[in-house]
Structure formats: C-alpha cells, structure tokens
Amino acid sequence: MSDPQFERLTLIGIGLIGSSIAHVARERQLAKEIVISTRSQETLNRAEELGLGDRYYLDAAEAVEGADLVILCVPVGANGAIAQWIAPSLAPGAILTDVGSTKTSVVNDIRPHVPDGVHLIPGHPIAGTEHSGPDAGFSTLFENRWCILTPEAGTDETALEKLKEFWKACGSTVDIMDVQHHDLVLAIVSHLPQLIAYNIVGTADDLETVTKSEVIKYSASGFRDFTRLAASDPTMWRDICLNNKDAILEMLARFSEDLSALQRAIRWGDGDSLFQLFERTRGIRKSIIEAGQDTDAPNFGRPIGTSSADDGSQNS
Amino acid sequence: MSDPQFERLTLIGIGLIGSSIAHVARERQLAKEIVISTRSQETLNRAEELGLGDRYYLDAAEAVEGADLVILCVPVGANGAIAQWIAPSLAPGAILTDVGSTKTSVVNDIRPHVPDGVHLIPGHPIAGTEHSGPDAGFSTLFENRWCILTPEAGTDETALEKLKEFWKACGSTVDIMDVQHHDLVLAIVSHLPQLIAYNIVGTADDLETVTKSEVIKYSASGFRDFTRLAASDPTMWRDICLNNKDAILEMLARFSEDLSALQRAIRWGDGDSLFQLFERTRGIRKSIIEAGQDTDAPNFGRPIGTSSADDGSQNS
Known about the structure:
The structure is a homodimer. Chain A is an alpha/beta fold.
C-alpha cells in the first residue's frame, strides 16, 4: 500500500465534488497543500471564505504548477479547454485525473493535450447530492461509495496505485473499468434516471388541468422523489447528455419500448402483466439495501412529517 | 369543531395505512374501541400480536357491526366485494370511508351497496412509504400530510365534519375535491411517478450489456431513488392502474411526448434546449421544500455512507 499523501493537490473547479475532496483531503491529511482554481472570482472568494484550500487562483495554469495531483472537477464539457490551458504548466510525474460522469469524451478531449511524463488517469467517484457549489461539499460524501478509474493500457502502475490509495483514503472502494463500459453502465444507473426525473417534472409543470400548487401540495405521494434529482446542476447535466449521447440514446430507446408495453397492459386491463412487472422490481431494491448502497428506513429515512421548520434546523 | 372521537372504529385491511391509522387512533384516543378485519388469518394474527386493535375478525360483516366509523384500507380492486359483504351489517348513521388512491372507481364500486342512512365519504390520505403489511405502520405517517375527501353532492354535513376532524386529529390537513379531479391530480403526482419507477427498474433488470451487480453497486448515482417506489405493494398498484386507466394513459402519453422531444435534443446535440429544461425543473423542488412536503437535506437526509449496518440500527 502506497502513501496516499500528495505534496500539492490542485482542484480545478470547486463545486460539490471539488469542495468535498477539499474537505476530506484536509481532514485526513491527504495532501500537504491544497490549491484551488475556478473561473469565477465570486466562487473563488467563497472557497477562500470557507477555507477550502491554501492558495487560490483564477488562472488554472498557475494553479497546477508544482502539483503532483491535479483533479479536474468541472462539467465534462469544460475539460478539453482546461487541459489545453494547463498542459504546459503540468509538472513531470504529476497525476492528472477528473471526476466526470462520462469517460470516453474525457479521454478524447484531454488526452491530446497531456505532455509525456504526466499520468492521465480518468476517474469517477459515484457519489453526489442534488446540491451544487462550494458550500455543498462535505468530507463524508465518498464514504462507502464506489470510485471508478478507467486507466488506458500502459498506464504507469505506481501512479495508478497512488491514485487508488487516495480514493480509498477518501472512504471509497475503487473499481477499474474499461472506458466504453463505464459509459454504458453510467447511462443506465445515472444518466437515464436523471433524464427521466427532469422529464417527469417538466411534464407536470406543463399541465393545464392540474395546477402547480396541487402538484406541490400532494407531491409526497411519489412525485417529490423525482424532484430531488431534477434539482441537480443543469450545466453539468447538459454536458453529460452531449458527451455520452450514444449510450444514453440506447437506454432511452429501451426505456421507451418498455413503457409502451406497460401502457398497452394498462389500456387492455392486463392485470397479470402489471402484477408481474411490479413484483419483480422489488428484488433489486432489496439487493441495493443489502449492498449498503441505500437505507431501508421508510421514505429514505426522511424526517417524519417533514416541514420547513424541520429543514431549517437540519441545515443550520 | 366536533369531537374527533368515535365509539367504534372498524378497519377493514391492516396493511401500511390500516395499521398506521390503528396506531394514531390508539395514541390520540380517536376511538373508544378499534376493531380489525382482514382476509388472511396470518395477517390477522400478526395484527393481534402487535396489539393494533381490541377485537379481530376474519368476517368483515361481523367486524363492522355497531361501528360508527368504518375505513376500508384494502387495494382499490377489493372495495366492491367488501362493500357488498358488509352492507347489511352497517349501523345506521355510520360513516363509511376508504383510503384508496383512485376515487371514481370507489364511488362506482361501493355506492350501489351502501344502505340509506349510512354516510359514504370517499377519502385519500396522501401519505405512505415503500413498506407494506401490518408491521409497516406508525402513528406519525399522516403528520403534516394532506388528506383529500371527495364527498358527493348532498353528503351529510355533520358526518363530513366529523370525518374531517378525525383526519385532522391524525395530523393531516384536509382538502375537499371533486372525484374526477382527484383522479387526474393523483395520476400526475403519484401514479405516473410510480409507473416510471417500475418501468426504469424493469429496463435496468433486462440489460444484457450491464450486469445486475453493476446496477446495484453503482446505484447511488441516481438509480436507487427509483427503486424505493418500485418496492411498493404490487397488488395495490395493479389495482390502481386498472382503476384509473384514462387519467393514467393521458399522463403517460404526455410524458412520452416530452421524452421524445428530450431524446431528439440529445440526438441533435441541442444543448440550449437541454439546459432550458434542466434549469426550469429546479423551481418545483424549491417550492416543495418551502411547502414542507420534502426535506432540503442532501440525498433526502439519508444516513451518510449508508451501509447495511446503519440500516439495521435504524430499523431496530
């Protein structure tokens, strides 16, 4: 096991994931120095107010100087331009990784710019919340979650080992996966659910016969579960859609086919088919709980009789 | 304000909703006596072990004798047969209500059997969890939730007032709504989300290219939110689909149209349309939280780094 500690960790982008890495790296001493760069002065100031790093730069190239670990924590669409920007300043031997939800595009966008001697190892921590920005991060976000790395053939073993230890020290279990397979897996476990959530909230918002206030009042009957995902960062999700198009379209097509069959069963009053589908989906829930990836507490363990007052106290 | 206390409350069906009513009625003394009937001997025994009522019957007709409040807590498809069974035994002046998620069908199925002098007032508490059965209930399920009543024209005002006070005493806020409108509202806030959840879990389960264990491992990236709903009682949901067909088909058609537009935007790389949709859905989430119908805590306030061990302690 190699030492998970780095000399200088540079985070490019300081949203939910970036700020969570900053918290956990500080708390567990995973880097002697944390350098933060983000493109907006306001966000950078906020990161400084929160004390997330040791040094702060608007200039990403300056920020990566001398860093032995650079993590890109920006919407995947921004990776190419940033890679081009920072490339000349990357230290020889540095590990360059990212946290994006699409990996084929990351390799395509970043790889051409990476100088020899810098270790590009694409990564993806499977963790998040619906909140975004530098205030949203917390040190336990990666606890008991998976982190997928998609190293190319010929990746330096020592660098790979060091990055694995870093993520383990953040609380995650590391999986190694092929880039293309990663994008297919994520299309079904993450991208499709996200799009379905956005879509259903949009459909409800457009109704003429049911008012918006009715949708809000009675949302505890199921709808509210979808609104959490639909509150996620729109730029991040736009970029994911544009960068994992083929896999997402494939999953959407399958979903729509299945939905047509379900619709047909309802139209023709086919109770047996409905029961069969509704019965078999229970098993997956059980497995997810057994795997420690969700809670079995009713309603995700939401505070009972959730009210605005409850929320206030929870967030303060 | 009338006294919410009844002499004898009979619950037909003792699943999540029935047992929750039993708990809250006992705790807040909303009935001097609680009588429970359910069709399976095993469930009835379990209800007795849990001490949910004062008397227990397999025979629903016997159970309703002398009751001044009878609540049907069974899947909506069972209402007609039960109404026919208990009708001759209902006490004059009794209030007969239900908790089903479809109301047009309830009126159609129950109304023909109700004797003169018995007050039929269909009802629907907008509350639940993904768990079912007599062990799933708890006294605060209805706290800060809405309960919709759909009285027909000419309903006795005193009876209606008394039932309203009962639900208020359970912790709910009561809304009065037209039957047809109820079914339309519920189709979008409850039935469509439920079907979408079942459908996406089915789609994931059918993939050949992504293994089931991968779906489970990486479910924290979005998918797991859907599996909660998809773990709900299949009989209940089959009956809802069969009994609110028209409204559900209408909502499914709208959802599918919107999904096609989204799919097209992805195929053609229309980032602006994607951003627009993803941006506007945030507002609804905010309103739901402000209305006290969900928590703003990240990930619904799930225990951080949820593991099987955490769950065990939560449920014990």
